[in-house]
């Protein structure tokens, strides 16, 4: 924006100098310069000192409608995993009009990009989680958090691309010692209630919400939250395999507030079958895309409740969670997967010009992942995968061998990507859609996972992986 001002100023400065030289009248030149500078500032300044967005929720034709500056705004969004402008551009190009965050670490860059690419941002405030050890009985810690988050809201409240504030991501996700999900400490919602009230006292232009994990205690969690947070404007829900039942679940809760879906995507790792030694089996990238679209149909695309304000797919970027490919809509190297094409079709009604390739089946010694493949040390093994491409693009196929995750995260928290290993004595063969890899199994007994990536040269990729166990 500042460079645009400089360019515009130079244009007017040149014009003024030319007119002044022709007229040789200093006072005329000064007057023209003043007029031109006024024009420049009048044209450009509103973007620099723009009014804050005014976001509200109304009921129209028996449906809840989100308004941004008095215009209906149906959220077609994604959770932003990129910390630079390129990710926001990709979202806009795909037809998305909004993104959410989980914290504000990269918010300056993200808001600048949102302004450039005309997208709105539902800002996630990093409210401490019991699951991560935050103690809501510690008044000093709660007070410091309150002040920190208030300062963040004051800093960004007047940005024209702020859509609202998420006051905590899955604060209801709490696990007991036996692994069972239990309700959160009521003090969590008391603290969020005070935060919501104070934010509303100086920022009436943006709604506040809390994002709830879809757990067995959901009804109890939301009931406690609504009672403790009277300033809540809408409820946010996060569901993966449970997405199709979410509308009926929310209807059964009999809550007057509208809702938004702030996370959805592939089947979660907790929803998938596992090997006999407990390693989750990941879907192929093409199966993830097809499954996500099917689950969206009667929950997001055709909302039966009249209360849905929009949705955010997870994750517009890449992350390590059980594997480096489970949840990200993109690879670490930037290529999109088929799920991005499905979202583009939902958001715009059109398929992209070039669609991502698809992995159809992957086996190890002709056994699928569900067979819980076990190999002897240094055994010669053959892996195969069928990969197709809608445009018959030439594909670059890459195989990688990783150890399994050592320490598994909970609730989407940080997880260390496992070590990549050398594929010993590897040979690759491609015949039509069939891609084969022969290699020697690792010498060290343990849990491993073989990955395959197919890149189409047009920013698209397919992924597949298969876990296996090396035994003595």
Protein model, in words:
This protein is of the alpha/beta class and 472 residues long. It has three domains: 2-48, no CATH class; 55-348, TIM Barrel (Alpha-Beta Barrel), CATH 3.20.20.80; 358-471, Sandwich (Immunoglobulin-like). The protein has ten helices and 22 strands. The strands form five sheets. It has an eight-stranded parallel β-barrel, surrounded by five helices. A five-stranded mixed sheet has the order 15-22-21-17-18, with no helix packed on it. Helix 3 links the parallel strand 4 (75-80) and strand 5 (98-100). The radius of gyration is 26 Å and the shape is globular. The model is unreliable at 1-49 (pLDDT under 50).
The helix fraction, in percent, is: 25-40%
Alpha-carbon distance between the termini?
A: 63 Å
Q: How many distinct domains?
A: 3
The major sheet is characterized as: 8 strands, parallel, barrel
Task: Determine Rg (CA atoms, Å).
Answer: 26 Å
Low-confidence stretches: 1-49
Give the integer mean of the pLDDT values: 90
In CATH, what is the homologous superfamily of the largest domain? Glycosidases
Q: Provide the spatial order of strands within the biggest beta sheet.
A: 4-5-6-7-10-11-12-13
- CATH second-level architecture of the largest domain: Alpha-Beta Barrel
Please state the structural category: alpha/beta
CATH top level label of the largest domain:
Alpha Beta
Short description:
Helices cover 31% and strands 28% of the residues.
Helix-strand blueprint:
Blueprint: H1 2-23, H2 26-48, E1 55-60, E2 63-68, E3 71-72, E4 75-80, H3 85-93, E5 98-100, H4 107-116, E6 120-125, H5 139-156, E7 162-169, E8 174-175, E9 181-182, H6 186-202, E10 208-213, H7 218-228, E11 234-238, H8 246-253, E12 259-263, H9 285-301, E13 308-316, H10 338-348, E14 358-364, E15 374-376, E16 380-388, E17 396-403, E18 420-421, E19 424-431, E20 434-440, E21 446-455, E22 461-471
Parallel strand pairs: 4-5, 4-13, 5-6, 6-7, 7-10, 10-11, 11-12, 12-13, 15-22
Antiparallel strand pairs: 1-2, 2-3, 8-9, 14-16, 16-20, 17-18, 17-21, 19-20, 21-22
């Amino acid at each position: 924006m500042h460079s645009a001002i400089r360019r515009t100023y130079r244009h007017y400065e040149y014009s003024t100098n030319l007119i002044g030289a022709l007229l040789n009248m200093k006072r005329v030149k000064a007057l023209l310069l003043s007029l031109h500078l006024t024009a420049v500032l009048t044209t450009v300044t509103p973007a620099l000192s723009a009014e804050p967005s005014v976001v509200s929720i109304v009921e129209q034709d028996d449906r809840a409608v989100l308004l941004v500056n008095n215009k209906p705004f149906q959220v077609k969004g994604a959770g932003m995993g990129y910390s630079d402008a390129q990710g926001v551009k990709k979202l806009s190009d795909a037809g998305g009009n909004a993104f959410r965050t989980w914290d504000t670490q990269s918010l300056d860059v993200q808001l600048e990009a949102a302004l450039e690419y005309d997208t709105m941002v539902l800002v996630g405030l990093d409210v401490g989680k019991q699951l991560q050890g935050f103690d809501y009985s510690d008044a000093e810690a709660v007070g410091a958090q309150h002040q920190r988050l208030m300062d963040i809201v004051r800093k960004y409240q007047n940005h024209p691309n702020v859509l609202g504030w998420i006051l905590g991501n899955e604060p209801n996700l709490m696990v007991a010692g036996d692994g069972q999900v239990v309700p959160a400490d009521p003090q969590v919602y008391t603290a969020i209630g005070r935060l919501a009230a104070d934010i509303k006292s100086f920022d009436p232009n943006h709604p506040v919400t809390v994002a709830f994990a879809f757990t067995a205690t959901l009804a109890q969690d939301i009931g406690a939250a609504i009672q403790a947070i009277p300033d809540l404007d809408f409820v946010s829900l996060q569901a993966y395999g449970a997405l199709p039942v979410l509308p009926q679940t929310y209807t059964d809760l009999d809550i007057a507030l509208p809702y938004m879906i702030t996370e959805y995507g592939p089947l979660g790792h907790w929803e998938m079958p596992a090997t006999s030694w407990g390693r989750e089996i990941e879907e192929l990238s093409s199966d993830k895309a097809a499954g996500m679209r099917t689950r969206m149909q009667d929950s997001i695309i055709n909302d039966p409740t009249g209360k849905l304000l929009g949705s955010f797919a997870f994750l517009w970027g890449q992350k390590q969670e059980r594997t480096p490919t489970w949840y990200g809509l993109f690879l670490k190297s930037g290529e999109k997967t088929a799920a991005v094409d499905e979202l583009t079709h939902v958001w715009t009604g059109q398929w992209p010009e070039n669609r991502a390739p698809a992995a159809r089946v992957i086996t190890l010694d002709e056994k699928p992942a569900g067979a819980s493949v076990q190999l002897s040390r240094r055994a010669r093994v053959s892996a195969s995968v069928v990969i197709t491409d809608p445009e018959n693009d030439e594909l670059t196929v890459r195989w990688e061998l990783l150890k399994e995750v050592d320490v598994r995260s909970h609730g989407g928290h940080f997880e260390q990507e496992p070590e990549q290993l050398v594929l010993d004595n590897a040979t690759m063969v491609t015949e039509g859609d069939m891609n084969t890899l022969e290699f020697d199994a690792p010498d060290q007994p343990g849990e491993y996972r073989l990955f395959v990536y197919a890149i189409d040269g047009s920013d698209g990729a397919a992924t597949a992986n298969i876990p296996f166990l090396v035994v003595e």
